[in-house]
Amino acid sequence: MSAGQKKPFLEALAEGPVLFDGAMGTLLYERGVLHTRSYDELVLSQPDLIRKVHLDYLAAGAQVIETDTFGANRIALARHGIADQMAQINKSAVKLAREASAGRAWVAGAVGPTGVRYAIATEAERRRARLALAEQIDTLVIAGVDLILLETFPSILELETAIAVAKERGPKVPVVAQHVFDPAGKGDGGLAPSEVAERLIACGADVIGANCGAGPAELYAVGTAMIGRGKPVIVQPNAGMPSLVEGRTIYVANPEHFGVFARRMLKSGIRAIGGCCGTTPEHIRTMLGAIRMMGGVRIDQIEQKPNPTQGSGPETPELRVPPPPAVPLAERSRLGARIAKGELAVSVELTAPAGTDLTKTKAQVQTLLAGGVDIVNIADGPRASARMANVAVCARLAAETGVEPILHVCARDRNFLGLVAHLLGAAALGLRDLVIITGDPPKMGDYPFATPVYDVDSIGLLKIARGLNAGFDPAGKPIGSATSFVLATGAEPGAQDYDRELRRLEEKKDAGAEVVMTQPVYDPRTLERFLDDTKGLGLPIMVGILPLASARNAEFLHNEVPGMSIPAEYRARMARVPQGPEARAEGIKIAQEALAAVRHRVAGVYIMPPFNRVESALAVLEAAADRWKPCHA
After folding, report:
1. E strand residue ranges, 343-466
2. What's the rounded Cα separation, in Å, for the pair 557 and 190?
3. pTM (global) more than 0.70
4. What CATH number is given to the structural domain containing 132?
5. Which of 108, 185, 207, 444 has its CA 20 to 30 A from that of 426?
6. Element spanning 285, H or E
7. Predicted confidence band at 267 (pLDDT cuts at 50, 70, 90)?
8. Which residues sit opposite 242 in a β-bridge?
9. Is 561 within a domain?
10. Residue 93: HSE in the Cβ half-sphere, 13 Å Cα cutoff
11. Are residues 387 and 251 in the same domain?
12. 277 and 395 in one domain?
């Protein structure tokens, strides 16, 4: 995108998630401004202070910054005796935000409620409120905001009025409308999120959602209930529920907590996230990792325009799509050769040991080799668990058993430099097969305080690996001998935001993905749809199969794991058999049925046996005996 061009906000939002900034008032209070002041008037009396807040959020990765105009309507300003400065305040706020962003972010004109008690107000009071909103929105639109952000409206009636006014005053300017819900997830008058969503859409809002009122967990539930009605959803929670400690208002949701819920929100289909009361640039910085993971628009896709007052910030490095690999797929590894020949590629996933003893793992590999399986997957800290480094496990298994390992590489734990070094080290150890993934956040594991990195997501990591395969590092410098990795990536056929999953898969192919390994699939209709919809990509698909271990295991996977859907019929079958060997046998039978239904439509299968029960994996493979050619170990 050339300098001076800007992608429209709604267009960008349709392509990927977008990150808004956090609280303005919280930072101003922390920086010495008493709450008795008009924070909006500071754009006139202390513009450098407001500019610094904008710059801090931009440095944290915010892609939308909000003008300091939340209470800059005539009625609210009158409480401070400055109603006559309404136009000057709003114009100056937009100018400050534009100067600070220097084209690196969209500018949202922030509009809050007037303070009129709308539910019991007289018609005259409502007309006064409508006029005040119209004046402010008019000024913001003329000053050149990219969107109008209606936020923290507790009254659904006033919010509906504000939407109508905004569409009248700036019909071409997108309107984002956010209602306040209580901690129980109820809106004004006990309205459910779905009811609020329908009303906001009916009034003409372009983006709907919730802010303030509650923390990430509560607004996650609210936001997900508003999805699926044809409009993007935005959520901007408080930093938890406020507590009064020694006379100070403290918000208890730390930045790491925000990062975890940010990923959860985006995976559920929420399109825009940010922060409200109590949040700081640190909260926004942790949310940036989730945006990157989910393929959000980068700042450099908004407008290429330098900002001389701003440092480099945490932008994702620009990664060109490198040239094709130097070595043909069939010559890189056993896996590559089998896929290239059209044979059914088979792999079994094993979990690395929690300690340093590989005795059990090697015994499991020997069992697989004896059964005809000579390729294994070794996960990279699944569910953010701390285990032996899988690169060491893969190298030792290859040297000591002759099995071919597939190394999982996730972007969670290593920065950009570390990822490049890790891939080069894997190549030097003779490892040829990679599964490139983004990785589960640390909050899921035993060490929630661990810092997630996510300098790149799976797409960025694929570009790095493809470049190495072409003989170049990410900076375009030759590395000598090119690597010869087979590049696999993951996909969720049952993803809640299915369209986004397909778009991401296209981007992964463009970035270098050569094989797709799906999450476990049980519903044949789900997998058939996925295979039909991805046929045009030309990517070989290895279907994931996870034999169920018990009825409890089936219910957990169905209810708690995103992207997993186990048909009621299968869950009922598991519930009818006793726990133990009989349950495992039924789980194997169900897995065999799933594999048999698609064995002629997929390029391969990789099986994830619970608790490394490799005998279960071998039993499942009996369902593909007509296509699978076991190795001769």
Report:
1. 345-350, 375-378, 404-410, 433-437
2. 33
3. no
4. 3.20.20.330
5. 444
6. helix 281-293
7. confident
8. 251
9. no
10. 32
11. no
12. no
